[in-house]
Amino acid sequence: MASRKKSLLKVIILGDSSVGKTSLMNQYVNKRFSNQYKATIGADFCTKEVVVNDRVVTMQIWDTAGQERFQSLGVAFYRGADCCVLVYDVTAPNSFKNLDSWRDEFLIQASPRDPEHFPFVVLGNKVDLDNRQVSTRRAQQWCQSKNDIPYYETSAKEGINVEMAFQIIAKNALELEAEAEVINDFPDQITLGPQSNRPSNPDNCQC
Amino acid sequence: MVQTNADGSDFKERLIASVKKEVKQLMEEAVTKKYVHEESSSVTSLCGAVEACLSQGLRRRALGLFKTSSTTALLHKIAKSCPEAEHISKLVQEIEASDPSKRSSSSSDSFQRPPMLKKSSSNSMSAAASTSSASASISVSASNSSMSLAGMKYLWIRLALYEKRLTKIIEYLVSNASSFYDRDSLVADPDYGSILSSLLVGPCALEFTRAKTADHYWTDPHADELVQRHRISSCRRSSSTCSRPAIINFKRSLNTSSDEASSGSFKSIASASVAKDYVESLHQNAKATLLYGKNNVQVLPKDVLEPMPGYLSLHQHIQTLTIKWTPNQLMNGYAEEEAEDIDKDAFWAYALNINVDEIVYVHCHQSRGEDSGGTVILVGQDGVQRPPIHFPEGGHMQQFLSCLETGLLPHGQLDPPLWSQRGIGKMFLWPRSMRRRILPSVMESVDETPIDYVFRIVSKSRHEEFAATHSILDFVRSTPRRAQLSSCSTTGSSDCSNKSLSIDQFPLESPLLLQQQTQHQQQQALLQAQSTSIEMVCSTMRRQIISRAFYGWLAYCRHLSTVRTHLSGLVHGRITPEMKADEEGLTKERWQLLNVNGVLENATEFYRLVYFGGVQPELRQEVWPYLLGHYAFGSTREERQKQDETCKHYYETTMSEWLAVDAIVQQREKEKTARAVAKLSSGSNSGNERTVRAADLDAGGELENEVFEDISDISDPGDLEFDEQQQQQQQEGVSVSGMHLSVKPIPRAMKTSTDSGHVDEGENFNELDEDDLQGEEKEKEKQAQPKPEPEQEQERDETEEEEEQKLEDQLNPEPSCSTSTASSYETVGPSAANQTRSVLSPEYLSADDLQLPEDEVAVKPQPPPQPQPQAAAVIITKASVDITNWERSPKAGGQGQMSPVEEQAINLDALQQPKSTCASPASSNGGVYSSELLEQFGLNLHRIEKDVQRCDRNYWYFANENLDKLRNVISTYVWEHLDVGYMQGMCDLVAPLLVIFDDESLSYSCFCKLMERMIENFPSGGAMDMHFANMRSLIQILDSEMYDLMDSNGDYTHFYFCYRWFLLDFKRELVYDDVFATWEVIWAAKHIASGHFVLFLALALLETYRDIILSNSMDFTDVIKFFNEMAERHNAQAVLQLARSLVLQLQMIIENK
């Protein structure tokens, strides 16, 4: 039964308000950028079909409200997440600073089975802008300190790295699942030959 | 197999052809959709076709004693010699063992054997069975996915296909055909056998998925499609009342008085649900394949004189085949207008939905000579004729029949088979190339007479269906059918064997016994079984009726007690009479009548009109302040004017306070930005020593992600100085902006300029130095300046201009950004000027004059006093206030603590000086703000800025500088409620007010009123959970069916899909005009019907789409998605009307208790 795996991946996007969570999601799912997005209230999600390791899986990407006040809402949405995407705005140092609390809060609320190895991905968004304020090095260092979280610099507006980042997200989410399965799995099934000795009694046949 | 050679080869060819067809379809699906779903109907049909091929000519004896034609047994049989088959066989057993109740039909034999038989089989067999079940219970993780698999047909073929081993297995079978198959079977055929295995190479290479995707148009349709489908099915009702059935239904159970009114519509509910099923089923979906579809097929329903055209379709479900016919009038449903509403009801009655299982005979008629189409009449088991179906000319009847026959395969067929029918050449215009060859020798007999044909539908192996269904009722339903079949089968020993085998599946009889029974005995047994089962059914029904009655009564009691305990508080006890038919809400005339001499007295009437009819758009500006409680009823025009002035004054004063802080914050921000940019550029240029150190810090336990702290911590002495300067400058900024209102826009412009251009470190230093100097200048200037009193107005304006000039000058050192500065300044400029002017407007002056002695002190406490968040956060704007405040807090010490400098603990003395000057009692004006306050408000401003920019920017009103007004109103509110702070969503609440009033201070006052209720919905309050709980109870009371669905999907309990509705009073759900209309009804409802009208609105919104939600049995995520997609597309008036009627309903229930 090795091939029967869960094929819905739940991905949560977190990060300060206006770092581009909605834009990232829509750029990835719909290949569109709009400057008309409003602040997200509550939560929304999109689904997208992706192929990872030759498997087709559906990603359910949850876009959440950015203000930390609304985190209390999270528990309903974070439940059962397979991967968490932390987004910050490279032009807004505070949004980077807050990654810590987003991560911690997520781990508290979603309470994944193995918090140490829960897959996160960090995205530094808006790299298309000139007034960058958080250096790549700095972000990478932070990610390294947190158990080597993969880090990507994206631009939802220009579509830079978005596709690739989400591909990694899906991959990491699947890996988590695969690990979980290894833990759960039992030794190989015993080989059976149930029909081998079935008696054949042609005389009793009716026709 | 009693078939002629010709028949045999023909049959084989047909079998192969059907496999070909299915393979082609599957491959097409794979190509067009890039993937194939495991449960795709094309997979099912392919498996069916393969099963048919494999079971043809299968030697039963080869499989053992009591084997049916099951190919699963064959699989198990070859498992020991063929590794692929072994693998699949193992999988099949695992799945079956993990879910013994839902055994796959085609493999039912392996486990449904009676105990006796099991004993007779070898020990290893039973051991195997037990071990396999053990292993299945171990692999719990696998059981979830296999559960659904177990219920599927053709399980092993499916699995083999998913596992890509089907080809290998079939190859094995072909090469070993002699031991399992008859000589003339398909598999043993030298050509067909290899064709079959090679055909399946393609499908075996495919990747199958179980995922639900957007491309799965039948499982995950977009909200639009759901609504459209629903519209077709409910078109006979006007869309506004499409959720009525549940409500009427509910009323009916409670108010006997309304019985006769609702009984009529109750009937229509039944038909409506049938109708809905119809429309759903006309689409190809996961459960059914569309085999045939033809429009303009005429049917002559009962009681109708002329045949009606309609859409005929043939659907293949897993177990059954269905023929549907829908009148054209219904097909293009939603395009038509309501004029035909009455007729539509009738049309639904005409629609046909025929289960082919119930059909025994198919009569075909066609008039001789010309091709005028043909008529098909279906006759059921009961002998009742279905309405004749008349096909248009062009061979459509023939197509239909052949599709029907294909659909019946592999387990049923037309008798006599279509292709061996006498005179077929005449009747059916088959393509010659294909059909000629097949025609049997009977052909040559006279073929003139028969134009009418009768086909009997024969089902070969009904036991499959039987094994799949367990309920007694189903059992009874299918029994007469089987009896009839076996009794009428008189020819062919193979037929006979089939039937007797089908009987051996009876649970009541031992198959061993049955084996020896004669046909007569079988029939007797059948009858017996039938009568016992009918008795059982009767008693079950009796029990069910009694228990239902009891549970109904119990539910009713619970229901009423729930209402009493929970919901009576949601609505007013007094029911306000609805509007008369001729009333249209609050029109101009009405308003003039009510508003006598500018005094509005009759509040009840006013609210009633608004609640039931809304407000005429032009009146809103005038009326809304009343609705929001800003103006008091009975107030005179003068009083209101005065109130407005006071509000305006208060608003402007407050604004001046926060604008000062804003200026400081902006400046800080600017510096931060400059530093960060500088840091970034220097960091990238000079060696990476610093960053390495930063990393060490990070790693060394201090994981706090303080970007700037880190930078300043590790920066060199030069940086420290830099810090000091900034600190100093901030201090100055505080004092400078304490009194100048127009300072605000300038730093904003500066910020923009810094943002847009890259500033390198050196330049930045220069600039800051200059800043510093100028700041000191300003400081002096300010100290020289006395309290702002009317006579100093001009002087102030001048200073402001000077300052602006200076600030502009400051920007000049950055040549790269001077142009952008100029432009951004231009846009901000006018509004800044306006602000200055409005602040110093005549009213303001007159108010000042009136309360001259202690104007600030007098004005401040006037509105509901808002406690300042922190004791330390003392705002000093005027000397007079200084004194009052200082009495409370120890002056000297307090200031020392307040200083933001102390936190840094660097060079305190150097900074002490400017601070002390600005705070010294000698200075007449000045403000000192604690750093927390600055920080806090700065953060809020930052957030406000970000959200304001994104708020409704596509709405015309906010296309221009009106966004600044929005920003001002929110900032003022936040400044006054710093303990609450800005929360996302406030923008959305202010925006409609601002659009209506187009006046900042009035919008502000009304927003404050609005927030009195709304603030509780935000995360800091507890209203949201209460709303959710109330929603739950309301749904339980008013729509039990919906409640059941939600209950079954446990995660519904949170009702998070309503979150945005309640938080923003449906502002995001509706377009602006509808928001206005909805809001005023909500406000009026508080006084007329319910203080929780939003709940009923939410319920109405839910009820509007209840049928869609229910029929698609949406879960939590589906509902969220649906409503997010439906945002701004609701019919607000209909929803409002429904909400009002829901309120009324609850009121009635409570009254009747």
Automatic annotation (TrEMBL), chain A:
Organism placement in taxonomy: Eukaryota, Metazoa, Ecdysozoa, Arthropoda, Hexapoda
Gene Ontology BP term (one): phagosome-lysosome fusion
Gene: Rab7
InterPro entries with a match to the protein in the record: P-loop_NTPase, Small_GTP-bd, Small_GTPase
Entry GO CC: late endosome membrane; lysosome; phagocytic vesicle
Protein name: Ras-related protein Rab7
Location in or out of the cell: Late endosome membrane
Family of this protein: Belongs to the small GTPase superfamily. Rab family.
PANTHER family: RAB FAMILY (PTHR47981), RAS-RELATED PROTEIN RAB-7A (PTHR47981:SF20)
GO molecular function, one term: GTP binding
SUPFAM superfamilies: P-loop containing nucleoside triphosphate hydrolases
Keywords associated with the record: GTP-binding, Lipoprotein, Nucleotide-binding, Prenylation
Keyword Nucleotide-binding: yes
Protein's UniProt keywords contain Lipoprotein: yes
From TrEMBL, chain B:
Region listing for Disordered, in residue ranges: 95-124, 713-836
Record GO terms (molecular function): GTPase activator activity
Keyword flag Cell inner membrane: no
Similarity section: Belongs to the RUTBC family.
Organism the protein comes from: Drosophila kikkawai (Fruit fly)
Residue stretches making up the Rab-GAP TBC domain: 614-1086
Keywords annotated in UniProt: GTPase activation
Pfam families: PH_RBD (PF12068), RabGAP-TBC (PF00566), RUN (PF02759)
Cellular component aspect of the GO annotation: cytoplasmic vesicle
Composition bias, Basic and acidic residues: 775-790
Domain of life: Eukaryota
Record carries keyword rRNA processing: no
Composition bias type Polar residues, residue spans: 813-836
Annotated Acidic residues bias: 713-724, 762-774, 791-806
Name recorded for this polypeptide: Small G protein signaling modulator 2
